[in-house]
Amino acid sequence: MSIVSKHPFPVIGGVSSNQYVLGWQASDQCIDNTIEYCAPFSTTFTTAEILRQFAIPENGTLKSFLVYVELSSGETNGIPYTVRIDGVDTALTVTQTLNTTGIYEVVADVPVTKNEKMSFQCDNTGNFGGTRTGSIAVLFERAS
User: Fold this and answer.
1) 123 neighbors 80 (Cβ within 8 angstroms)
2) 35 contacts: CB under 8 Å, gap ≥ 6
3) Over 80: is that where the pLDDT of 29 sits?
4) What confidence tier does 135 reach under pLDDT thresholds 50, 70, 90?
5) What is the pLDDT of residue 79?
6) pTM across the whole model
7) How confident is the model at residue 26 (pLDDT cuts 50, 70, 90)?
């Protein structure tokens, strides 16, 4: 993993000269029957989305979304994880299969503009089990 300091904030993981992985890894649990949020470089989920919004560093495109679920037991529904921009859901959504662990990924182009706010949403509504998210990441590609 590399840290690129080309911008006013560190970007974790260079994929290519114009692509970066923006990620979160904390092994945190989304609270039962709750919608919660996290963002790159945060270490916990919270119910206040404004506390987990991350400013997009420059114009570009979000290319893919990956969620690793490391512990899962007792859910009654699958759990959707969604990338949100300025509080609105995007096409980057994955749903954890009921009571399973593993990696979930979706690929879609979502254009973003500098200073828009990005967050990751975990919708655990209706679930009363022990799901722990190990990591979440998006692939960001700078505009040419």
Assistant:
1) yes
2) 47, 121, 122, 123, 124, 125
3) no
4) confident
5) 85
6) 0.83
7) low
Structure tokens at 48: 């206040």
**Strands (DSSP E) along the chain, which ranges?**
3-4, 11-12, 14-16, 19-29, 35-38, 54-55, 60-71, 79-85, 88-96, 102-112, 117-123, 132-142
**In angstroms, rounded to a whole number, what is the distance separating the alpha carbons of residues 99 and 16?**
35
Residues whose CB is less than 8 angstroms from the CB of residue 56 and which lie 6 or more positions away in sequence, other chains included: 85, 112, 113, 114, 115, 116, 117, 118, 140
Classify domain 3-142 by CATH architecture: Sandwich (2.60)
Q: Tokens representing 49? A: 């989305």
Residue 51, number of CB atoms within 10 A of its CB:
13
* Residue 39, CA distances (Å) to 9, 20, 71, 97 in order: 14, 15, 20, 22
Measured CA to CA, the distance from residue 85 to residue 114 in angstroms comes to 11
